[in-house]
Write a structure and sequence with these properties.
The chain is of the alpha/beta class. The protein has 11 helices and 15 strands. Strand 2 and strand 3 form a beta hairpin. Helix 2 packs antiparallel against helix 3 and helix 4 packs parallel to helix 5. The two termini are about 25 Å apart. About 45% of the residues are buried.
Length: about 350
Amino acid sequence: MLISTFVEEVVFKQPLSIAGRTLVGQQVLRISARHRGWVAEAEAAGVFYRGESGATMQRQVHEWLADPPGDLPDMWSRVQQMPPGGARNALDWIVWQLEAAQRGIPAYSLAHLPGLRARTTMVTLGVAAAGHMAAMALNYPFARALKLKLDGSAEDAERVTAVRRARPDVGLSVDANEGWTIAHLDRMMGTLLEHRVELIEQPLPANSDAALDHFSSPIRLAADESLQTQDELEQVAQRYQVANIKLDKYGGLTAALTLAASARQLGLEVMVGCMGGRSMALLPAFIAAQAADLVDLDAPLLMANDSAPSASYVGGRIDFDPAAYAQPVLSSSSVSASSVQARHAGG
């Protein structure tokens, strides 16, 4: 097996402002693996608020390669022992692809899916002046669902009002990225109800969301930063109605599917989102999104350039060509499974 890692700088079409920060781009980790005549590729954006970057994820992969796996079952087992994060996410998807290739089936079949269907996805609008956010909403005429980033300031109500007036036809969600207080949440509720907002994502900081224990919200609350591992799921179920599952947070498709099943057992709805990334990073997330109640996989729309195969966004839905899940076969120069090497570029 030959594993190569690359770090790439991905620039956004325009800066994306959220509560507390403005993002102009991100480093992503890209992995290419060759095994017994098959090739698999993966990309991960990591979790920026944990300090992950393309470079830190690359180092983690190289540390993992210091004791190379002997075969795919060993590789899968050792990947699951890695700390949750972008590096584990990318390697997990590599194993999914190679295992599927060995069986001669598309990767989504390993999740017991007969096929994949287009899913309606939210489209994100960054924090800006109310009029500018309304104009941004009009820039996505195909969108059926919009998610508004809000920052906890007095202008939040104006932003929701302006966007709803501009787009009376779409589903609306808001995402505070931990930037609100319980008092701001209470003040905003009338505006949110008036303008038919359907979801409030992570209104309070994760370390102080105990204030939600006695807050009865008429609008569903979604946990994102408050849900980092399976261990937090029961507490989340007491405060929220929706679990936002992101593969970079939990360490890949394998962990995400397990978490989704556990969330449903606790009565939570499942939302599948992402930490950014281009289309390649969304291939496994799209599998997880097949059974989700809510989908937030619009990151490629924010990128100045995309990877191939590219997601399509038609009629407000994300979709992939089924060929994106078929692993190409190498030529006779394929590498023996007994040899594991690492290369890197960038970063």
